[in-house]
Amino acid sequence: MYDSDSDGLHAARAELVSYSARLLDDGLAVGSAGNMSVRSGDLVAITPSGISYAEMRPEDVCLVTLDGTEEQNAETPSTETPMHLAIYAATTAGAVVHTHSAEVIALSAAREELPAIHYAITGLGGPVRVAPYVRFGSDGLAAAAVEALDGRSAVILRNHGAVTYGRDLAQAYDRALLLEWLARTYRLALSYGEPSLLSAAELAEVTAESRRRRYGERRSTHQQRRP
Ligand SMILES: [Zn+2]
After folding, report:
1. N- or C-end of the chain: fewer Cβ atoms within 10 A?
2. What is the mean pLDDT of the chain?
3. CA of 87 to the centre of ligand 1 (A)
4. Ion ligand 1: residue ranges with CB closer than 5 A
5. 3-state SS string over the chain?
6. What pLDDT digit, counting tens, does each position of 177-195 carry?
7. Which of 80, 103, 113, 209 is an active site residue?
8. Burial group, residue 180, by CB count within 10 angstroms (0-12, 13-18, 19+)
9. Mean per-residue pLDDT for 200-213?
10. What is the whole-number distance in angstroms between the Cα of residue 129 and the centre of ligand 1?
11. Cα(18)–Cα(191) distance, rounded to whole angstroms?
């Protein structure tokens, strides 16, 4: 969650511009495709529609209220604004990243989900569902994405792309990279034949162990700070 004061919004806009440039460098989108947003209190800062990432400036980033009312923007907010707002309404997201990443789109055309090829998928909540195809920019796509996100921080949109969210833009973006890596790893595994996959019990064990280790780290940090 970002601060809702003007400093917080300024930082959010600058961060959106720098991560948007990374989207192209990391191969997660081409041209002006894909979009991202951060929540700042009751406002959502979202990338504008139709501006190339190379030309985007912080002041081009649009502001929209959580109920979809536009603030006074020079540019038009992303066509996928309804999907971003639906995700903020349904989850604890502080930032949302929507990509048109090649590995994920290829998988979406042939599979119902990205299965557990590696235990890192627990970072996304488990196997990632493929939501049915619905036209870009529609309320139907927003609803399909939210439904398929249940218990997950990532969803694949059939013949379209992917959406990830996180507590901030850095985490949402890292999850988009993780999703792309998992899809590529799964495709490589398929080239050898039928891959073995992790079971729900094995994933639950990984999640429990990760929690235990994070708890241990917090405790040791806390103890070190004591005089
Ligand atoms: Zn899209």
Report:
1. C
2. 92
3. 15
4. 161
5. CECCCHHHHHHHHHHHHHHHHHHHHCCCCCCCCCEEEEEECCEEEECECCCCCCCCCHHHCEEEECCCCECCCCCCECCCHHHHHHHHHHCCCCEEEEECCHHHHHHHCCCCEECCCCHHHHHHCCCEEEECCCCCCCHHHHHHHHHHCCCCCEEEECCCEEEEEECCHHHHHHHHHHHHHHHHHHHHHHCCCCCCCCCHHHHHHHHHHHHHHHHHHHHHHHHHHCC
6. 999 999 999 999 999 999 9
7. 80
8. buried
9. 95
10. 17
11. 36
Among this protein's residues, is 80 annotated catalytic? Answer: yes
Match 């196997």 to its residue by tokens: 127
Q: Are the CB atoms for 126 and 151 separated by under 8 Å? A: yes
Neighbours of 139 (CB within 10 A): 11
Instruction: Compute the distance from residue 217 Cα to the ligand 1 centre, in Å.
Output: 38
- Quote the ligand 1 centre to 209 CA distance (angstroms): 35
- Per-residue model confidence (pLDDT) at position 227: 46
The pTM (predicted TM-score) of the whole model is 0.92
What is residue 70's predicted lDDT score, i.e. its pLDDT?
Answer: 80
Residue 224 has pLDDT above 70, yes or no: no
